[in-house]
Amino acid sequence: MTVTGTASPSTSTGRITRHPSQTELDELCINTIRCLSMDAVQKARSGHPGMPMGMASVGYRLWTKQMRHNPRNPRWLNRDRFVLSNGHGCMLLYSLLHLTGYDLPLEEIQNFRQWGSRTPGHPEYGHTPGVEATTGPLGQGLSNAVGMAIAEQYLAARFNTPGHRIIDYKVYVFAGDGCLQEGVASEACSLAGHLGLNNLIVVYDDNRITIDGSTDLSFTEDVAARFESYGWAVRSVDGDGNDLRAIDEALSAAAAETNRPTLIRLRTHIGYGSPHKQDSHDAHGSPLGEEEVALTKQALGWDPAKVFHVPEEVLKSMRSVADQGAAAEARWKELLESYRKEEPERAAEFSRVASGTLPEAWETFWKENKSLFESGAGVATRQAQGAFLDALMPHLPLVLGGSADLTPSNNTRFKGAEDFSRTNRSGRYIRYGVREHGMAAIMNGIALSGLLIPYGATFFTFSDYMRPSIRLAALSGYPSIFLFTHDSIGLGEDGPTHQAVEHLAALRAIPGLVVLRPADAGETMYAWKYAIENRKGPTAIALTRQAIPVLDRRAFPGAENLLKGGYVLSEGKDPRLILIASGSEVHLALAAAEELVSEGLEARVVSMPSWELFENQPEEYRSNVLPPGVRKRIGIEAGVVQGWERYLGPEGVFIGMSSFGASAPGGELFKRFGITVETIVTTARRICS
Predict the structure, then answer these.
(1) Which of 12, 126, 410, 622 has its CA 20 to 30 A from that of 323?
(2) Does the global pTM surpass 0.90?
(3) Among the options 27, 292, 436, 612, which is catalytic?
């Protein structure tokens, strides 16, 4: 559907004529947003003024009329969500937050992009009240929004009753040409259409400009047709982006959509009102310049001498949103009180989940299953994970799982799991398809619900496809659980394209990400315990394809020691040497230590499943595990050496990979690349001689 608005006359002729759909107050509010954005960028001498100027009208209308939110309580559980996917235009968001009454005073707008301000150069979740997701890397916010929409649909299916719609929010997104060109958004939007996420509404800022210039240089596809092929409803609003009636009509129709997500293609003009930079890439990523700002303000009917000016009538009008939002939340609380009386069990679970508390069954599970993997035959840690999830997941209904089309290989679908689908919103297993990047970003959106814990899996080598989303999860503190199987050359014949070599080092390099590589089934179980309980940030778990021994915990320290990151697994009487390993290589270290003892060389074996957790232990503990006086050390890991120097020191040696792998059986590869008991023993003799 296309709605045609009335375009404004050329800015070069003087004062811009107010759009017929706007009252004088509407125009004043919209131009306040534009001028705040221009002023903040100009004062900072950096930023992106063009997008906020072009999207000011739709931002104003959405935030003051269409969207349900409460500036006095930004974390109200049933608020509509807004995601600024084209996060470079964040002054639009910051202006709206300030003007509608969020805790973002004008001083923060004036301190845009400066040290310590709550108005950073791109929106950051948890840093600024009202910011729902960290955006800036294009396509990420839009993809997060798909996860947010999935979360709402699942929560509604679980908690709502015919008389009590406790969860029924919409997810609104602003996205530009850059977002729609990024592959991650294509992956996520394809899945959104497949699932029929009717609560997802995306406003496409069709200003036809990117950093390089006109989109004609590189982007001439029919975006509307693409989204229609995904299964989306598509509406178009032509004109200049200022027709409030057409915007209202499109947003209202999208909110009423029952079967599909909606894309609203809104024709806008970047740098709207600027006499010399409107519709130019010059308005994208640089200040307009003081002279151009003054000319633009004149064209908008604004006094150029007024900087960071907010008229009283604008503040009074837009701050009324806070009263409306508070009233909406009060009505919701009344509904919630009725829900508690009529649905006490559901209400109790909802309150528990809202508080971030795990169910009592969680602790009961650990008491009853602590010995699940204390001993037994060799098993791949990916298979141990599958058995563990079969036992665990019935106790955790607010954990949603999935895989990027590798379910049988990843062992992530637990017994009794139903698929989340267009016809079953209560399903807890998500079929992401071959969309690793999209999966990771969608998981982050699910985590942003604050109520659900997502996990998703693929082969470890494809963590490269997911890295941007994993990085944002770590930066923002999203508690997503990233699972990776086939963690080394041990996967064998699929060859170097599928064999992770540098990936442990790459993930360990991300601040805020906890990486776990368990040594057996028992450590795998406790890796999951940590991941579920970790609500401060993301967790990555790397698991084997090949079977490895299950350590007999009646003879070795308990697997719960994984929670310390590193621990002494085998203690020599007076060790001259420390063998440090993770994952499948721990067993090589144990076998080597046993052989060395028979030769009279005592060696301590340390299982090091997580550098991050080990570094969080007290210095005294770390020194007890790795005594500074024992300087002869060997690190063993089927990955590259980067980072190991922190534990090996100047006299240490690393046994691992220094090249890509090859296609052959896994056991043969370990021999060919020298990651063997024999290599460890020979090396130990040499450095201790």
Answers:
(1) 126
(2) yes
(3) 436
